[in-house]
Amino acid sequence: MNTVTICDDINMKRHRSGLRLGGDGENCGCAGCAGCCTGPRGPAGPAGSFLGYADFYAILTPDSATAIQSGGDVPFPLDGCAGGGTAISRISPATFLLPAAGAYLVSFSVPVSGAGQLSIAVNGAELPYAVFAKAAFAINGSAIVSASAPSALSIRNPASGAGTVTAAPHICAAVPVSAHLTVIRLA
Questions:
Q1: Phi, psi angles (nearest 5°) of residue 63
Q2: What does the pLDDT look like over 41-75, one tens digit per residue?
């Protein structure tokens, strides 16, 4: 049995099982295939583009622990990558500008020592559906938020929280670790 026959045999078994194969838009290339592996080519979709994204971060070392009091915001003092049509930018080390009305995916990760919670706040209001608790050595959160134009975004130790949250690497961390806030405009 040669290679072509083995390939044809495998593809024919896939045909009989109903498994659809990718390909060049015409067929999978096996003998007897008449385009059964793919359907007709559909119309082209709209051109995609980024609506806007930005990453802000902090480098944490054991000697740079940051205490965030109840009602206080987590600082992300360094700028990471940013781009797209909407200029998501910094207002202060702990507050960020969402310049256009729309939906934003907000994700963060903050290494902490001790227990605690952090929430996403828009225009100073903590979002009740976006409060996250510590898991292992960090507080991680992600939510889609709706914002009017312009809006201020922050990651906050809830005012009703149990007390101070300390942003710091785990005591066993051999090298500095980072805290990140990533914002992507979805619509």
A1: -95, 5
A2: 888 867 766 689 999 999 998 788 899 999 999 99
Provide the residue ranges of all domains of the chain, joining segments of one domain with +: 1-41, 53-185
How high is the pLDDT of residue 25? Answer: 42
Q: Could you write out the three-class secondary structure of the chain?
A: CCHHHHHHHHHHHHHHHCCCCCCCCCCCCCCCCCCCCCCCCCCCCCCCCCCCEEEEEEEECHHHCEEECCCCECCCCEEEEEECCCCCEEEECCEEEECCCEEEEEEEEEEEECCCEEEEEECCEEEEEEEEEEECCEEEEEEEEEECCCEEEEEECCCCCCCCEEECCCCCCCCCEEEEEEEEECC
Residue 124 near residue 179 (C-beta atoms within 8 A): no
**Tokens at residue 37, please?**
């592996």
Query: Which residue in 63, 65, 64 sits closest to 167, CA to CA?
Result: 65
What is the residue-averaged pLDDT of the chain? Answer: 82
- Tell me which fold the domain 53-185 belongs to: Jelly Rolls (2.60.120)
Neighbours of 17 (CB within 10 A): 8
pLDDT above 70 covers a percentage of the chain that reads 76
State the pLDDT at residue 85: 79
pLDDT in tens, 152-187: 999 999 998 778 999 988 767 678 899 999 999 999
